[in-house]
Amino acid sequence: MHRIASGELHSTYTLGDLRITSLRDGYVDMPVGRLRQNGDKPFGDDLPEQVALFGGQLRLSVNAFAIDDGNGITLIDTGAANAWHPSMGRLPQALDEAGIDVEKIRTVCFTHTHLDHIHGLVLADGRDAFPRLARLLVPRQELGLFRAVARLERFHEMAQFFEAGDHLGAHVDIIGAHGHEVGHSCFRVSSGGECILIWGDTVHVPSLQFDRPDVTWEFDGDQDQARESRLRLLALAADDHCFVAGAHLDSPGIGRVVRSGGGFRFEPL
């Protein structure tokens, strides 16, 4: 996997015969207490030194990923648009910077239905972000959650479901990664003997959760299941030599996972 182009808001890589582009929607600052340890105990003054803070808060990058197979472009997650913090909503600029024509994005898939992953279907001015969208895929367990989002009502009937074990075309397989949300999913993309796990919110704070994958996040719907999924995907990435792409890994959010002591280490690509 090699980087062939980059800018402030994007980085594009080759993966076999595919092109994978990381797209930066922005960032969100969150309280340290969102991190949980030893069951459900928030971090406080005991936060490890390697975790950088911005104004006393954790800064999480918000990334989406495009897969170009030469015939069409599939987008994994869409960012938040103007639905949450003003530090997000830059996906349209990222796509433009990367030279990706939004009319060529015919398929959009969601790792899960939290607002910083789905609201980018609609631009801040109310127009459709992807005017030629033909296929919209949501985890089976979260189809109802998606259809409850009033802002996205025009897409409710278009949405179809997928589940773990499904194949989305020749290059993409679905791996269950439940816990953060009830249907949270990972997309394994393979080509030319290489693979990458586009794993959504498996890791929120990379400076801590690779070394200590037991640490969970307040917004994990089922913290025990989220921890199990994180450990399983970290082991899969390390042992099968897959690259990983994370929605909240520091932009561009792509790299390798290696085992290190009793935990893991992230090596940015």
TrEMBL record:
Family: Belongs to the metallo-beta-lactamase superfamily.
Keyword terms, alphabetized: Hydrolase, Metal-binding, Zinc
Gene3D superfamilies associated with the record: Ribonuclease Z/Hydroxyacylglutathione hydrolase-like
SUPFAM superfamilies: Metallo-hydrolase/oxidoreductase (SSF56281)
Record-linked InterPro entries: MBL_superfamily_lactonases, Metallo-B-lactamas, RibonucZ/Hydroxyglut_hydro
PANTHER family: QUORUM-QUENCHING LACTONASE YTNP-RELATED (PTHR42978:SF6), QUORUM-QUENCHING LACTONASE YTNP-RELATED-RELATED (PTHR42978)
Pfam families per record: Lactamase_B
Protein name: MBL fold metallo-hydrolase
Molecular-function annotations in GO: hydrolase activity; metal ion binding
